[in-house]
Protein backbone atom coordinates (compact mmCIF):
# COMPACT_ATOMS: atom_id res chain seq x y z
CA UNK A 1 0.00 0.00 0.00
CA UNK A 2 2.63 2.54 1.01
CA UNK A 3 4.54 1.69 -2.12
CA UNK A 4 1.55 2.49 -4.29
CA UNK A 5 0.80 5.89 -2.83
CA UNK A 6 4.41 6.91 -2.35
CA UNK A 7 5.58 5.91 -5.78
CA UNK A 8 2.86 7.61 -7.83
CA UNK A 9 3.23 11.33 -7.31
CA UNK A 10 0.06 13.42 -7.58
CA UNK A 11 1.25 17.02 -7.66
CA UNK A 12 3.01 17.74 -4.41
CA UNK A 13 0.91 15.57 -2.16
CA UNK A 14 1.71 11.96 -2.67
CA UNK A 15 5.45 12.38 -2.65
CA UNK A 16 7.47 9.85 -0.81
CA UNK A 17 7.54 10.79 2.83
CA UNK A 18 4.05 12.23 3.39
CA UNK A 19 3.56 9.71 6.14
CA UNK A 20 6.94 10.40 7.76
CA UNK A 21 6.88 14.18 7.34
CA UNK A 22 3.29 15.10 8.14
CA UNK A 23 1.37 12.19 9.57
CA UNK A 24 3.83 10.60 11.98
CA UNK A 25 4.90 13.87 13.70
CA UNK A 26 1.23 14.75 14.25
CA UNK A 27 0.47 11.25 15.55
CA UNK A 28 3.49 11.38 17.85
CA UNK A 29 2.29 14.72 19.22
CA UNK A 30 -1.14 13.26 19.98
CA UNK A 31 0.35 10.16 21.62
CA UNK A 32 2.81 12.26 23.65
CA UNK A 33 -0.14 14.15 25.14
CA UNK A 34 -1.63 10.93 26.59
CA UNK A 35 -0.93 9.94 30.19
CA UNK A 36 2.57 8.34 30.20
CA UNK A 37 1.41 4.75 30.78
CA UNK A 38 -1.11 4.86 27.91
CA UNK A 39 1.40 6.73 25.73
CA UNK A 40 3.86 3.88 26.11
CA UNK A 41 1.31 1.20 25.22
CA UNK A 42 0.15 3.30 22.23
CA UNK A 43 3.76 3.74 21.07
CA UNK A 44 4.34 0.00 21.35
CA UNK A 45 1.11 -0.76 19.47
CA UNK A 46 2.23 1.56 16.65
CA UNK A 47 5.65 -0.10 16.50
CA UNK A 48 7.55 2.97 17.70
CA UNK A 49 8.97 1.40 20.83
CA UNK A 50 9.53 -1.91 22.58
CA UNK A 51 7.47 -2.98 25.59
CA UNK A 52 10.13 -1.50 27.91
CA UNK A 53 9.85 1.89 26.18
CA UNK A 54 13.15 1.71 24.29
CA UNK A 55 12.87 2.83 20.64
CA UNK A 56 12.15 0.13 18.06
CA UNK A 57 14.68 0.01 15.24
CA UNK A 58 13.56 1.27 11.81
CA UNK A 59 9.88 1.87 12.46
CA UNK A 60 9.50 5.61 11.93
CA UNK A 61 6.22 5.10 10.07
CA UNK A 62 4.79 2.67 12.59
CA UNK A 63 3.58 -0.88 12.31
CA UNK A 64 0.39 -0.31 10.34
CA UNK A 65 -0.19 0.46 6.67
CA UNK A 66 -1.76 3.89 7.31
CA UNK A 67 -4.56 3.13 4.84
CA UNK A 68 -7.13 5.41 6.45
CA UNK A 69 -4.82 8.46 6.74
CA UNK A 70 -3.86 8.06 3.09
CA UNK A 71 -7.52 7.97 2.10
CA UNK A 72 -8.14 11.17 4.09
CA UNK A 73 -5.20 12.86 2.43
CA UNK A 74 -6.11 11.85 -1.12
CA UNK A 75 -9.76 12.73 -0.51
CA UNK A 76 -8.68 16.24 0.41
CA UNK A 77 -6.69 16.50 -2.80
CA UNK A 78 -9.59 15.04 -4.77
CA UNK A 79 -11.72 18.07 -3.91
CA UNK A 80 -9.00 20.69 -4.32
CA UNK A 81 -7.50 20.70 -0.81
CA UNK A 82 -3.95 19.90 0.24
CA UNK A 83 -2.27 17.10 2.14
CA UNK A 84 -1.73 19.47 5.05
CA UNK A 85 -5.47 20.28 5.24
CA UNK A 86 -6.15 16.59 5.85
CA UNK A 87 -3.71 16.04 8.72
CA UNK A 88 -6.24 16.35 11.61
CA UNK A 89 -8.58 13.97 9.76
CA UNK A 90 -5.74 11.55 9.06
CA UNK A 91 -4.59 11.61 12.68
CA UNK A 92 -8.09 11.21 14.10
CA UNK A 93 -9.02 8.21 11.98
CA UNK A 94 -5.71 6.49 12.68
CA UNK A 95 -6.12 7.05 16.43
CA UNK A 96 -9.62 5.59 16.25
CA UNK A 97 -8.32 2.69 14.18
CA UNK A 98 -5.63 1.96 16.78
CA UNK A 99 -8.24 2.13 19.53
CA UNK A 100 -10.45 -0.41 17.76
CA UNK A 101 -7.54 -2.80 17.17
CA UNK A 102 -6.53 -2.66 20.84
CA UNK A 103 -10.06 -3.48 21.95
CA UNK A 104 -10.66 -6.01 19.19
CA UNK A 105 -7.60 -8.04 20.16
CA UNK A 106 -8.92 -8.23 23.71
CA UNK A 107 -12.39 -9.24 22.51
CA UNK A 108 -11.02 -11.93 20.18
CA UNK A 109 -8.13 -13.00 22.43
CA UNK A 110 -5.77 -12.54 19.46
CA UNK A 111 -2.23 -12.61 20.79
CA UNK A 112 -0.47 -11.35 17.65
CA UNK A 113 -0.79 -7.90 16.09
CA UNK A 114 1.49 -6.14 13.63
CA UNK A 115 4.12 -8.89 13.88
CA UNK A 116 4.42 -8.89 17.66
CA UNK A 117 2.56 -9.72 20.84
CA UNK A 118 -0.71 -7.79 20.96
CA UNK A 119 -0.72 -4.98 23.52
CA UNK A 120 -2.97 -6.88 25.95
CA UNK A 121 -0.58 -9.81 26.02
CA UNK A 122 2.45 -7.53 26.52
CA UNK A 123 0.92 -5.10 29.04
CA UNK A 124 -2.25 -6.78 30.33
CA UNK A 125 -5.90 -6.29 29.42
CA UNK A 126 -6.60 -3.21 31.60
CA UNK A 127 -3.67 -1.33 30.04
CA UNK A 128 -4.75 -2.22 26.50
CA UNK A 129 -8.36 -1.19 27.12
CA UNK A 130 -7.43 2.07 28.80
CA UNK A 131 -5.01 2.93 26.02
CA UNK A 132 -7.78 2.36 23.49
CA UNK A 133 -10.07 4.62 25.51
CA UNK A 134 -7.40 7.32 25.66
CA UNK A 135 -6.84 7.14 21.90
CA UNK A 136 -10.56 7.51 21.21
CA UNK A 137 -10.78 10.61 23.37
CA UNK A 138 -7.65 12.00 21.73
CA UNK A 139 -9.18 11.49 18.27
CA UNK A 140 -12.30 13.42 19.24
CA UNK A 141 -10.15 16.16 20.68
CA UNK A 142 -8.03 16.47 17.51
CA UNK A 143 -11.12 16.79 15.31
CA UNK A 144 -12.94 19.20 17.62
CA UNK A 145 -9.98 21.59 17.51
CA UNK A 146 -10.06 22.11 13.74
CA UNK A 147 -10.92 25.78 13.15
CA UNK A 148 -14.24 26.40 11.31
CA UNK A 149 -15.11 22.87 10.19
CA UNK A 150 -14.66 21.40 13.70
CA UNK A 151 -18.37 20.96 14.41
CA UNK A 152 -19.19 19.21 11.13
CA UNK A 153 -16.09 17.08 11.49
CA UNK A 154 -17.03 15.94 15.01
CA UNK A 155 -20.50 15.04 13.76
CA UNK A 156 -19.00 13.00 10.93
CA UNK A 157 -16.72 11.14 13.34
CA UNK A 158 -19.43 10.49 15.92
CA UNK A 159 -21.76 9.03 13.27
CA UNK A 160 -18.98 6.74 12.12
CA UNK A 161 -18.24 5.63 15.70
CA UNK A 162 -21.87 4.71 16.27
CA UNK A 163 -21.90 2.63 13.09
CA UNK A 164 -18.60 1.08 14.01
CA UNK A 165 -19.75 -0.12 17.41
CA UNK A 166 -22.96 -1.48 15.84
CA UNK A 167 -20.92 -3.39 13.26
CA UNK A 168 -18.62 -4.83 15.91
CA UNK A 169 -21.56 -5.81 18.06
CA UNK A 170 -23.14 -7.66 15.10
CA UNK A 171 -19.85 -9.39 14.38
CA UNK A 172 -19.63 -10.66 17.95
CA UNK A 173 -23.28 -11.77 17.86
CA UNK A 174 -22.70 -13.65 14.58
CA UNK A 175 -20.33 -16.05 16.34
CA UNK A 176 -23.21 -17.59 18.28
CA UNK A 177 -25.81 -17.24 15.49
CA UNK A 178 -26.78 -20.44 13.66
CA UNK A 179 -27.21 -18.66 10.37
CA UNK A 180 -25.97 -15.38 8.94
CA UNK A 181 -26.95 -14.22 5.45
CA UNK A 182 -24.56 -12.54 3.03
CA UNK A 183 -26.70 -9.38 3.30
CA UNK A 184 -26.36 -9.41 7.10
CA UNK A 185 -22.63 -9.92 6.76
CA UNK A 186 -22.30 -6.97 4.36
CA UNK A 187 -24.25 -4.68 6.71
CA UNK A 188 -21.97 -5.74 9.57
CA UNK A 189 -18.81 -5.14 7.50
CA UNK A 190 -20.03 -1.72 6.41
CA UNK A 191 -20.28 -0.77 10.09
CA UNK A 192 -17.19 -2.52 11.40
CA UNK A 193 -14.78 -1.50 8.65
CA UNK A 194 -16.60 0.69 6.13
CA UNK A 195 -17.71 3.35 8.59
CA UNK A 196 -14.19 4.43 9.52
CA UNK A 197 -12.88 4.38 5.96
CA UNK A 198 -15.93 6.34 4.87
CA UNK A 199 -15.26 8.77 7.68
CA UNK A 200 -11.60 9.13 6.63
CA UNK A 201 -12.66 10.11 3.10
CA UNK A 202 -15.53 12.34 4.19
CA UNK A 203 -13.38 14.14 6.77
CA UNK A 204 -10.67 14.71 4.17
CA UNK A 205 -13.35 16.39 2.07
CA UNK A 206 -14.90 18.36 4.94
CA UNK A 207 -11.56 19.81 6.03
CA UNK A 208 -10.81 20.80 2.44
CA UNK A 209 -14.12 22.68 2.18
CA UNK A 210 -15.91 20.23 -0.15
CA UNK A 211 -19.62 20.69 -0.86
CA UNK A 212 -22.24 18.24 0.50
CA UNK A 213 -22.47 16.23 -2.74
CA UNK A 214 -18.71 15.74 -2.80
CA UNK A 215 -18.59 14.73 0.87
CA UNK A 216 -21.39 12.20 0.28
CA UNK A 217 -19.53 10.78 -2.71
CA UNK A 218 -16.31 10.46 -0.74
CA UNK A 219 -18.06 8.87 2.23
CA UNK A 220 -19.75 6.34 -0.04
CA UNK A 221 -16.44 5.59 -1.73
CA UNK A 222 -14.75 4.91 1.60
CA UNK A 223 -17.60 2.82 2.96
CA UNK A 224 -17.72 0.53 -0.07
CA UNK A 225 -13.95 0.34 -0.06
CA UNK A 226 -14.06 -0.64 3.59
CA UNK A 227 -16.39 -3.53 2.81
CA UNK A 228 -14.05 -4.65 0.02
CA UNK A 229 -11.14 -4.32 2.45
CA UNK A 230 -12.97 -6.47 5.02
CA UNK A 231 -13.68 -9.13 2.37
CA UNK A 232 -9.95 -9.17 1.60
CA UNK A 233 -9.15 -9.31 5.32
CA UNK A 234 -11.43 -12.32 5.72
CA UNK A 235 -9.73 -14.05 2.79
CA UNK A 236 -6.30 -13.33 4.33
CA UNK A 237 -7.55 -14.68 7.65
CA UNK A 238 -7.98 -18.08 5.98
CA UNK A 239 -5.58 -18.17 3.01
CA UNK A 240 -3.02 -15.53 4.01
CA UNK A 241 0.27 -16.11 5.77
CA UNK A 242 1.00 -14.96 9.33
CA UNK A 243 4.51 -14.03 8.26
CA UNK A 244 3.12 -11.58 5.71
CA UNK A 245 0.08 -10.26 7.56
CA UNK A 246 1.48 -10.11 11.09
CA UNK A 247 -1.84 -11.54 12.28
CA UNK A 248 -2.79 -15.07 13.26
CA UNK A 249 -4.01 -17.09 10.26
CA UNK A 250 -6.67 -19.72 10.95
CA UNK A 251 -7.80 -18.03 14.16
CA UNK A 252 -11.07 -16.87 12.58
CA UNK A 253 -11.96 -20.45 11.67
CA UNK A 254 -10.89 -21.81 15.05
CA UNK A 255 -13.14 -19.20 16.70
CA UNK A 256 -15.95 -20.20 14.29
CA UNK A 257 -16.17 -16.62 13.04
CA UNK A 258 -18.76 -15.96 10.35
CA UNK A 259 -16.36 -14.36 7.92
CA UNK A 260 -17.62 -13.85 4.37
CA UNK A 261 -16.05 -16.98 2.83
CA UNK A 262 -17.67 -19.04 5.59
CA UNK A 263 -21.04 -17.29 5.35
CA UNK A 264 -21.10 -17.80 1.58
CA UNK A 265 -19.97 -21.42 1.88
CA UNK A 266 -22.60 -22.21 4.51
CA UNK A 267 -25.29 -20.67 2.29
CA UNK A 268 -24.30 -22.79 -0.72
CA UNK A 269 -25.94 -25.94 0.65
CA UNK A 270 -23.95 -28.66 -1.19
CA UNK A 271 -22.07 -31.58 0.42
CA UNK A 272 -19.01 -29.54 1.48
CA UNK A 273 -21.29 -26.81 2.79
CA UNK A 274 -23.23 -29.34 4.91
CA UNK A 275 -20.01 -30.81 6.32
CA UNK A 276 -18.81 -27.34 7.17
CA UNK A 277 -22.12 -26.67 8.92
CA UNK A 278 -21.53 -29.77 11.06
CA UNK A 279 -18.03 -28.60 11.99
CA UNK A 280 -19.18 -25.06 12.74
CA UNK A 281 -22.32 -26.22 14.55
CA UNK A 282 -20.48 -28.40 17.05
CA UNK A 283 -19.35 -26.77 20.29
CA UNK A 284 -16.22 -28.85 20.79
CA UNK A 285 -12.95 -26.93 20.32
CA UNK A 286 -11.23 -27.37 16.96
CA UNK A 287 -8.77 -30.30 17.02
CA UNK A 288 -5.54 -30.71 15.08
CA UNK A 289 -6.46 -30.84 11.42
CA UNK A 290 -9.86 -29.14 11.80
CA UNK A 291 -8.58 -25.78 10.51
CA UNK A 292 -7.16 -27.43 7.39
CA UNK A 293 -10.41 -29.35 6.90
CA UNK A 294 -12.57 -26.23 7.35
CA UNK A 295 -10.34 -24.32 4.91
CA UNK A 296 -10.82 -27.04 2.31
CA UNK A 297 -14.58 -27.21 2.84
CA UNK A 298 -14.99 -23.43 2.56
CA UNK A 299 -13.11 -23.48 -0.73
CA UNK A 300 -15.04 -26.49 -2.09
CA UNK A 301 -18.35 -24.85 -1.22
CA UNK A 302 -17.36 -21.76 -3.22
CA UNK A 303 -16.77 -19.42 -0.25
CA UNK A 304 -13.42 -18.18 -1.46
CA UNK A 305 -14.65 -17.35 -4.95
CA UNK A 306 -17.79 -15.65 -3.59
CA UNK A 307 -15.75 -13.41 -1.27
CA UNK A 308 -13.36 -12.47 -4.07
CA UNK A 309 -16.28 -11.57 -6.33
CA UNK A 310 -17.95 -9.55 -3.60
CA UNK A 311 -14.75 -7.57 -3.03
CA UNK A 312 -14.58 -6.69 -6.73
CA UNK A 313 -18.27 -5.73 -6.75
CA UNK A 314 -17.74 -3.40 -3.79
CA UNK A 315 -14.79 -1.73 -5.50
CA UNK A 316 -16.91 -1.07 -8.61
CA UNK A 317 -19.58 0.58 -6.43
CA UNK A 318 -16.89 2.53 -4.55
CA UNK A 319 -15.54 4.05 -7.76
CA UNK A 320 -19.04 4.99 -8.90
CA UNK A 321 -19.51 6.88 -5.64
CA UNK A 322 -16.10 8.54 -5.95
CA UNK A 323 -17.16 10.11 -9.26
CA UNK A 324 -19.73 12.17 -7.32
CA UNK A 325 -16.84 13.98 -5.63
CA UNK A 326 -15.67 15.16 -9.09
CA UNK A 327 -11.98 14.34 -8.54
CA UNK A 328 -9.34 15.28 -11.10
CA UNK A 329 -8.16 12.46 -13.35
CA UNK A 330 -4.81 12.06 -11.62
CA UNK A 331 -6.08 11.67 -8.08
CA UNK A 332 -9.01 9.54 -9.31
CA UNK A 333 -6.44 7.19 -10.85
CA UNK A 334 -4.51 7.05 -7.62
CA UNK A 335 -7.57 6.26 -5.52
CA UNK A 336 -8.61 3.63 -8.07
CA UNK A 337 -5.16 2.06 -7.76
CA UNK A 338 -5.47 2.01 -3.96
CA UNK A 339 -8.87 0.35 -4.29
CA UNK A 340 -7.46 -2.32 -6.59
CA UNK A 341 -4.49 -2.83 -4.32
CA UNK A 342 -6.73 -3.29 -1.31
CA UNK A 343 -8.36 -6.39 -2.68
CA UNK A 344 -5.16 -7.88 -4.02
CA UNK A 345 -3.12 -7.29 -0.88
CA UNK A 346 -1.07 -9.78 1.10
CA UNK A 347 -1.15 -7.93 4.44
C1 LIG B 1 -16.38 2.74 18.12
C2 LIG B 1 -17.21 2.88 20.48
C3 LIG B 1 -16.55 2.10 19.43
C4 LIG B 1 -16.12 0.84 19.69
C5 LIG B 1 -15.26 0.05 18.80
C6 LIG B 1 -13.61 -2.88 19.06
C7 LIG B 1 -14.57 -2.23 18.14
C8 LIG B 1 -15.66 -1.39 18.76
C9 LIG B 1 -14.50 -2.39 16.81
C10 LIG B 1 -13.46 -3.22 16.10
C11 LIG B 1 -13.49 -2.96 14.64
C12 LIG B 1 -12.39 -3.66 13.88
C13 LIG B 1 -11.18 -4.12 14.58
C14 LIG B 1 -12.51 -3.82 12.59
C15 LIG B 1 -11.47 -4.49 11.74
C16 LIG B 1 -11.02 -3.57 10.67
C17 LIG B 1 -9.78 -4.07 9.99
C18 LIG B 1 -9.95 -4.78 8.70
C19 LIG B 1 -8.58 -3.87 10.54
C20 LIG B 1 -7.28 -4.13 9.90
O1 LIG B 1 -6.88 -2.87 9.37
P1 LIG B 1 -5.46 -2.67 8.66
O2 LIG B 1 -5.12 -3.87 7.87
O3 LIG B 1 -4.49 -2.58 9.93
O4 LIG B 1 -5.49 -1.36 7.97
P2 LIG B 1 -3.02 -1.93 10.04
O5 LIG B 1 -2.31 -2.80 11.03
O6 LIG B 1 -2.37 -1.97 8.68
O7 LIG B 1 -3.20 -0.55 10.54
From TrEMBL:
It comes from the Bacteria. GO terms for molecular function: transferase activity. Keywords: Transferase. Its EC number is 2.5.1.-. The keyword Transferase applies. Gene3D superfamilies: Farnesyl Diphosphate Synthase. Belongs to the FPP/GGPP synthase family. This is Polyprenyl synthetase family protein. It comes from Streptomyces longisporoflavus.
Amino acid sequence: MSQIVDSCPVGAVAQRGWVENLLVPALRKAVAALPPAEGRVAGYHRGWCEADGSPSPGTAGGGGKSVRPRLAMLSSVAVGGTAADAVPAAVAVELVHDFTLLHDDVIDGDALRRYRPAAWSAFGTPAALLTGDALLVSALSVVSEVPRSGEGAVRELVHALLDLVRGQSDDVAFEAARQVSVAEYLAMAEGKTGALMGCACALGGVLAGADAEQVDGLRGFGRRLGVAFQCADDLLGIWGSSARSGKPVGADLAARKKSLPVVAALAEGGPASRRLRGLYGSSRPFREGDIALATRLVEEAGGRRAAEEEARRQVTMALRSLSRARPGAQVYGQLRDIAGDMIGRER
